[in-house]
Amino acid sequence: MFVSCVNWSHFPTMRRSSSHVVVVGVFAALLLSQVCSGIKWLALSHVSPSLHINQTQHCKLLPGLVSSQAQLCRSNLELMQTIIQAAREVKKTCQKTFGDMRWNCSSIDIPIDAPKYRPDLDRGTRESAFVYALSAATISHTIARACTSGDLRLCSCGPIPAEIPEPGYRWGGCADNLHYGLVMGSKFSDAAMKMKRPGSHANKLMHLHNSEVGRLVLKEALVMKCKCHGVSGSCSIRTCWRGLQDLREIAMDLKTKYLSATKVVHRPMGTRKQLVPKDIDIRPVRENELVYLQSSPDFCTKNDKQGSVGTQDRQCNKTSVGSDSCDLMCCGRGYNPYTEKLVERCHCKYHWCCYVTCKKCERIVERYVCK
């Protein structure tokens, strides 16, 4: 367990006339109660979209920052809006990626008054391994894309590749600035794990390793994208650049690594302790594999101590044979059917030129939820 890393100077005496009282009131409970964690910055997902970080004192109002992150905020205010956006993307992407499994990343959506992250993220489980990896990838991905879109003035398009393109191709466009994204993203997201504070050294090593796995997957997601040019769509020449795949695809790659993650132990190797595979410790941990220290619960029933919210009332798929099937999702408890009326567009017709008209059709569908 990490010790608390709240900076008490972040809470100046509040006055009724202060324009920040509302914001501080919203986040105070979260800030005062969280423990120091490498993904504590994900609490930024709660920041109101109407709050614009354009003054250094605004950094005091942001939840989840350790001292070095607050310092980066003060020296680079413009970057913080992008980091806040990244925190929202982590939550949204994680929950979409695991929507078909018993653990559906619900623990990442922290209520304001929660005392800390749920144990499935506090402990060194494979779930926390995924969240750390996704968080590291997402923050660098979001910053790299922000450079390309012009949202950050301190960076621009990525460099033109050194290799000569094939005939019919040419470098151009605006490449995603992955280098800047990786530098600034790792500087921010790894800050808490690199602080000299009491806590589990094994957990810190695990989180740093998994964060690096997330960035490695991000590097592999930089692909060539092209746009055609030519008479009548002949595509006689293609303008190409290096762009990142969508975050959803990166998350799916990390989910595959989550499913095959390696359990490790903290063991002396040479002159210091390192993480080594528990069952096959004759080899070192591979740089591209997610690792975890503690086994996860089955997430079938609610267990606050283990961080399981259970699967009661979760929707399941009666015809599926995958993880979203009613047999697996409901853990053998059975399920209840219910009907739902859907209103959809139907009988659409295209009219020249140029619009489409549709009718509205109703249909009844049967759904199932776990007992």
TrEMBL record:
Gene Ontology MF, one: cytokine activity
Family from the record: Belongs to the Wnt family.
PROSITE patterns: WNT1
Keywords attached to this entry: Developmental protein, Disulfide bond, Extracellular matrix, Glycoprotein, Lipoprotein, Secreted, Signal, Wnt signaling pathway
GO cellular component terms given for this protein: extracellular space
Name of the protein in question: Protein Wnt
InterPro entries in alphabetical order: Wnt, Wnt_C, Wnt_CS
Origin species: Sphaeramia orbicularis (orbiculate cardinalfish)
Localization per Swiss-Prot or TrEMBL: Secreted, Extracellular space, Extracellular matrix
One BP term from GO: neuron differentiation
Annotated function: Ligand for members of the frizzled family of seven transmembrane receptors.
Main location: secreted
